[in-house]
Automatic annotation (TrEMBL):
Highest taxon of the lineage: Eukaryota
Pfam family, any one: Ank_2
Annotated protein name in UniProt: Serine/threonine-protein phosphatase 6 regulatory ankyrin repeat subunit C
ANK repeats: 22-54, 55-87, 88-120, 122-154, 187-219, 220-252
Organism encoding this protein: Cacopsylla melanoneura
SUPFAM superfamilies, per the entry: Ankyrin repeat
InterPro entries: Ankyrin_rpt (IPR002110), Ankyrin_rpt-contain_sf (IPR036770)
PANTHER family, per database record: ANKYRIN REPEAT DOMAIN-CONTAINING PROTEIN 39, ANKYRIN REPEAT DOMAIN-CONTAINING PROTEIN 39-RELATED
Keyword terms of this UniProt record: ANK repeat, Repeat
Source lineage: Eukaryota, Metazoa, Ecdysozoa, Arthropoda, Hexapoda
Length: 282
């Protein structure tokens, strides 16, 4: 192209590869242009492949953002380091997972990218990002490469908690099959509480089939049964009862599920809970 010819001509006639300011570099510009030939020309003149711009981003960060696999390959061939974080703490692979680019993720991992890189103030891992994107293929790739399935962010949120909240049944199943623990990372709640609050019966069954305690309590002493009654999701009631949920566990205020139903004026729940209580005494 004409652009390539012009760049080549300037370089052959003594153009310096030193940038006139610190906000970027000629290599960053070349990468952002999307032309791998220009990138190769700049690198052939000895440009530092790991130079950073004012945001702490290397040309590899920019290469990921261009979604150009040829540019990424060229940078790696010239020694680009894959684990340099920008000022936000994000490495190139964080961006690759965010933009859902499977080939780039594979390439970066094959070149030593940190599988458990945490790229935000909240300490999210690559697996957290893939779960947020609801991308089952990416989730499976990361797990196959050794991602920590039980990693917590700074708010004690695990990939499993995210998947439950997003009601992505397939990803919940995938995480559980790959060793996700059903033990909650904090005492405030439980995965079953989360599943009940989301109202997804399939997820509830997946969790319960892993042996989750159906009568676990949150920080207020409330069981998942309390949550079901509060939410008014009548379809979930039989499932919890099937797994042995007790209707007579009081919370820290002394309230049982039937008290919650009465306060709500939910006659259907009151009737069902009264029937269950009578059965328990037969």
């Amino acid at each position: 192209s004409k652009e390539v010819e012009i760049v080549d001509c300037l370089l052959k006639n003594g153009a310096s590869i030193l940038y006139s300011c610190e906000s970027s570099s000629y290599l960053h510009d070349a990468v952002n242009s999307g032309d791998v030939t220009i990138v190769e020309l700049i690198l052939s003149k000895g440009h530092d492949v790991n130079s950073v711009d004012s945001a702490g981003r290397t040309s590899l960060h920019c290469g990921v953002k261009t979604r150009n696999i040829d540019i990424l390959s060229a940078l790696l061939k010239h020694g680009a380091r894959v684990n340099i974080p920008d000022e936000m703490g994000k490495m190139p692979i964080n961006f690759a997972v965010e933009i859902k680019h499977m080939k780039m993720v594979h390439l970066l991992l094959d070149n030593g990218a940190d599988m458990n890189a945490r790229g935000t103030y909240y300490g999210e891992t690559l697996l957290h990002i893939a779960v947020k994107n609801k991308q089952i293929e990416m989730v499976q790739i990361l797990l196959d490469k050794g991602a920590d399935v039980n990693a917590c962010d700074t708010n004690k949120v695990t990939p499993l908690k995210l998947a439950i909240q997003l009601q992505t049944v397939e990803i919940v199943d995938c995480l559980l099959k790959n060793g996700a623990s059903i033990l909650y990372p904090c005492e405030k709640s439980s995965y079953l509480h989360d599943a009940v609050n989301c109202g997804d019966l399939k997820i509830i069954k997946l969790i319960m089939n892993k042996g989750h305690n159906v009568n676990c309590v949150d920080s207020d002493g409330r069981t998942p049964f309390h949550s079901v009654v509060k939410k008014g999701n009548i379809d979930i009631l039989p499932a919890l009862l099937k797994y042995g949920a007790s209707v007579n566990v009081p919370d820290k205020m002394g309230k049982m599920p039937i008290h919650v139903a009465v306060e709500k004026g939910d006659d259907i729940y009151v009737k069902k809970l009264e029937e269950k209580e009578i059965q328990n005494h037969l």
